[in-house]
Write a structure and sequence with these properties.
The protein is mainly α and 123 residues long. The protein is 56% helix and 7% strand. Bound molecules: zinc ion (2 copies). The site of one zinc ion has 8 residues, from helix 4. This is MerR family transcriptional regulator.
Length: 123
């Protein structure tokens, strides 16, 4: 969609599909390549460290992580308990727990539906 935006970074008015103006997108790309380059050499670095070392705004780094552009091993957290994880949405413990509760829920549902069919059958 082509729209008129004022760039959130440099406040310049421009027309385009994204909020950032072309110059700022270019700058972001440069930042992005330095960050991904840094991560390539320091795969265990966390977002704070990367931001500091590359002089890139931490919010930008976090944004890229959220967007899935940067696969940072250390910034993924379990959606349930907040523990740091390497991949997916939950840590292994919560994954097991969730599987269990899902299973229980299904069983509970099956029991209840069974009960209702029983009542219906009596009619
Ligand atoms: Zn701009
Ligand atoms: Zn967890």
């Amino acid at each position: 969609m082509i729209m008129i935006h004022s760039c959130p970074k440099c406040k310049q008015i421009h027309i385009g599909a994204s909020e950032l103006c072309f110059a700022c997108i270019k700058l972001e790309e440069v930042d992005f390549s330095s960050v991904s380059d840094y991560l390539h050499h320091h795969p265990n670095a966390n977002a704070d460290e990367v931001a500091k070392e590359t002089n890139v705004d931490i919010h930008l780094v976090m944004k890229w992580i959220k967007e899935g552009r940067l696969i940072s091993l250390h910034e993924l957290t379990c959606e349930r308990c907040g523990k740091k994880i390497k991949s997916g949405r939950f840590c292994s413990e919560c994954g097991v727990d969730l599987q269990k509760s899902l299973h229980q829920m299904k069983q509970g549902l099956a029991k209840r539906t069974g009960y209702f069919t029983h009542i219906d059958g009596k009619k």
